[in-house]
Structure formats: structure tokens, C-alpha cells
């Protein structure tokens, strides 16, 4: 999530009540999670296991819960609760604004686009030309939709990421400040749910077609010309490269990559990153030919044992 204008280290430290290490005028341009950070970003870290990764990431300001040596060219914000203070920053620069109309006055809707009854379109949404939005679709604030997109009834774009910290008092939500971005010629079936990014974008690229009742988690990127069948569940921070086919009732782990042109057969559990250009099946996932051979061997073994 980028700020509308650069902030200084001093301004952010004052906002969250943290101690700063570095030049008070050190420039900060946004906040992001570790997997998408860029120069100018703040990243937060609150576990020693990830200190090194955060300090050596592309982020130039690290919000951390321990005083450590500051890497050259970077700054620190030292907090007793980085998770809480990351939320403070998100709330300050991207506050929730209540909608008073079914279609916000700040929404931009392109020529030839048809909006059916009972659609909700939030603040600062952008929808391109010649789209068709069917009844009861909900499009949260800041979503971006390209040209020639079709969205079927009851689909929801931009709900919060499923991201919580377990505290003694209960689960504390990491506030989502990202967006959903649909490129041109995307089709979404009925009752799909596409969560927004925590700080970045959940993106579905040009020409991809998604069936009914598919869930896409936060910060996932789905490539061009993919086909995804019904009841598939895609976790957060997944990268699906171009021209991937995913059949029904597939589930994935978070943070994995599915290579270009892969085909995943129905009811497969994608538990790890997989190469493109191959067909996969089963849980744990294997190439389909190998998995079918395994099943045939098991069947043969059981038959032989029964006849022994």
C-alpha cells in the first residue's frame, strides 16, 4: 500500500508512538508484507525467526520489536507490538469510509457497462467499458476492474484477508489495506469470493475464466488465460502462472507457485510448488501418471494379499 505522499520517519514514529533509529527526515512511501516489499516501504516483524529476512529485504524501514543493528541505508521503528502498530498505519492512511449509496459517487464506470439491480459498488472503484455485473454482486472499495469483464450473481470482490494473530485475549485481525484487480476479459462465476490484498493487490490477469463458488485468498496472482473450475479454494500469496487449468474441488497451500500450463485434476491438494507443463493429481500431489501407477500398485498388492 503506497501513501498518497511520502512520509518521514519522524512522522510515522510519532503516529504509532515508536522509537526511531535513523534520520528523522528518512523517506517512507508505503507499507507492505515481506513478499512484496519495495524500496521506501515499511515491513513489520515480531518474531526472531524472521528478523534477518525482514532486515535484509527490499524494505527500507523495519518495524521491529527488538533493538538491533540498523542496516546501512535503512531505518528502524522499534515497537513493543509491531502487529498492532502496522494496523495503526493502515487505519490512518486507508481508513474505512462508510458507504451511503449502493453505487458510490466516487466510482468510475466505463461506457457500455451494465450494472444489474442490487449491485453494491464501493468508494473509488474503477470499472472499465462493456462489462456486465449481475445482481447482488458486491464490489468493495478501491477494486479495479478492466474492460469486457463479466461477474455473475452474488460474487464478492474485496473482502478482508483471512489473517490473524493469536493472542491470549483471542484472534487479532491484520487489517487489509490492499485491493482486488481484474484485468480485461475476465469472467467470474456466481458466488465467488476474491479477497483483497493485505497491503498489495490480489490480481486476476487478462482472459482468465473462473467457475462458480471459487475462493481466491489475499495477495494471490492468477495469470493470463487460466481456467479454474467450481469449488476450488486458492490460499493467500499463491502465484498461478499463465494458462493453468484447475479442475473442481482443488485446494492449495499458501505461498506456492503453480507453473505455466500446468493441469491439476479434480480433488487434488496442491501442497507444494509445482512445475508447469505437466498434469497433476492426488494428495500429496504428484504427476498424474505416477499417482495412477501408485494406485494401481496398491490395488494389485491388496488383491495378491487377499488371494494368498
From TrEMBL:
Residues 26-91 form the UDP-3-O-[3-hydroxymyristoyl] glucosamine N-acyltransferase non-repeat region domain. It comes from Asprobacillus argus. Keywords: Acyltransferase, Lipid A biosynthesis, Lipid biosynthesis, Lipid metabolism, Repeat, Transferase. This is UDP-3-O-(3-hydroxymyristoyl)glucosamine N-acyltransferase. One of its GO terms (molecular function) is UDP-3-O-[(3R)-3-hydroxyacyl]-glucosamine N-acyltransferase activity. The keyword Metal-binding does not apply. CDD domains: LbH_LpxD. PANTHER family: UDP-3-O-ACYLGLUCOSAMINE N-ACYLTRANSFERASE, UDP-3-O-ACYLGLUCOSAMINE N-ACYLTRANSFERASE 1, MITOCHONDRIAL-RELATED. Signal peptide: none annotated. It is an enzyme of class 2 (transferase). The keyword Signal does not apply. Its EC number is 2.3.1.191.
Amino acid at each position: 500500500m503506497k501513501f498518497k505522499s511520502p512520509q518521514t520517519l519522524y512522522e510515522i514514529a510519532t503516529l504509532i508512538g515508536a522509537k526511531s533509529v535513523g534520520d528523522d527526515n528518512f523517506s517512507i512511501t508505503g507499507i507492505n508484507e515481506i513478499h512484496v516489499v519495495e524500496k521506501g516501504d515499511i515491513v513489520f516483524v515480531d518474531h526472531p525467526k524472521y528478523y534477518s529476512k525482514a532486515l535484509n529485504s527490499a524494505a527500507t524501514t523495519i518495524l521491529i520489536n527488538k533493538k538491533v543493528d540498523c542496516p546501512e541505508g535503512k531505518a528502524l521503528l522499534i515497537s513493543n507490538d509491531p502487529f498492532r502498530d502496522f494496523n495503526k498505519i493502515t487505519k490512518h492512511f486507508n481508513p474505512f469510509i462508510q458507504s451511503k449509496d449502493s453505487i458510490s459517487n466516487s466510482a468510475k464506470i466505463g461506457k457500455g457497462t451494465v450494472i444489474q439491480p442490487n449491485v453494491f459498488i464501493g468508494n473509488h472503484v474503477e470499472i472499465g467499458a462493456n462489462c456486465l455485473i449481475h445482481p447482488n454482486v458486491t464490489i468493495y472499495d478501491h477494486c479495479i476492474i478492466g474492460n469486457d469483464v463479466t461477474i455473475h450473481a452474488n460474487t464478492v470482490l474485496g473482502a478482508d484477508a483471512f489473517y490473524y494473530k493469536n493472542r491470549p485475549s483471542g484472534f487479532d485481525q491484520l487489517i487489509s489495506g490492499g485491493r482486488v484487480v481484474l484485468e480485461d476479459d475476465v469472467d467470474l462465476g456466481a458466488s465467488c469470493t476474491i479477497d483483497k490484498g493485505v497491503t498489495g493487490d490480489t490480481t486476476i490477469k487478462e482472459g482468465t475464466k473462473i467457475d462458480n463458488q471459487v475462493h481466491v485468498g489475499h495477495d494471490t496472482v492468477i495469470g493470463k488465460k487460466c481456467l479454474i473450475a467450481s469449488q476450488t479454494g486458492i490460499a493467500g500469496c499463491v502465484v498461478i502462472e499463465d494458462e493453468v487449468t484447475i479442475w473442481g474441488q482443488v485446494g492449495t497451500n499458501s505461498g506456492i507457485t503453480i507453473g505455466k500450463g500446468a493441469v491439476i485434476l479434480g480433488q487434488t491438494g496442491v501442497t507444494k510448488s509445482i512445475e508447469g507443463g505437466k498434469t497433476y493429481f492426488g494428495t500429496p500431489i504428484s504427476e498424474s501418471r505416477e499417482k495412477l501407477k501408485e494406485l494401481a500398485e496398491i490395488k494389485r498388492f491388496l488383491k495378491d494379499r487377499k488371494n494368498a
